[in-house]
Amino acid sequence: MGAGLTTAQAAGEVPYESERFKAELSQGRPMALLFAADWCSTCSAEKAVLDELLAEPRFGELTVFVADYDLERALRRTHRVAQQSTIIVFKDGREVGRAIGLVRKDALGDLLAKAL
User: Fold this and answer.
1) How is residue 56 annotated by DSSP?
2) What are φ and ψ of residue 10, in 5° steps?
C-alpha cells in the first residue's frame, strides 16, 4: 500500500492534511476531496449520505479528505472550487469526476465509484 499505511488507516473520511493528501494522490490511491462548511445545510446532508456510503464494503479502499471550505482558500483555488459542498473524485492520481451539492445516495455512490 505504500507509505506504511494499512487499509484501515488510509480508507474512510479524514480531515484534509496537505502532506497526506499529496502523498496519497501521488500513489494513485482511490480518493475524494470534499469541501464542506459548518454553516452549510447541504454539506450536512451530503456528509450524512457520505457516511452511509463509506460504511459499504465496496468503498473500503476509498479515502475522503474533508477540507474546510472557509479556511482552505489556496486549496480551493488550486482545484477551481467556487462553492461549498463540492466533491472531487480522483483515480490513479487524476481527477475523474466532481459535483456540487450531491445528496442523493445513488448519485453520490456513482460518483465515488469512479475512483475505484
Assistant:
1) S
2) -90, -35
The answer to whether the CB of 61 falls within 8 A of the CB of 9 is: no
Span 7-113: which CATH code?
3.40.30.10
The pTM of the full predicted model, rounded to 2 decimals, is 0.87
Q: Which residues contact 35 (CB under 8 A, 6 or more apart)?
A: 67, 68, 69, 72, 75, 76, 81, 83, 84, 85, 86, 87
At 9-25, the pLDDT tens digits run: 446 889 999 999 999 99
**Domain ranges (residues) in the chain:** 7-113
Render 80-111 in DSSP notation, one character per residue: T--STTEEEEEETTEEEEEEES---HHHHHHH
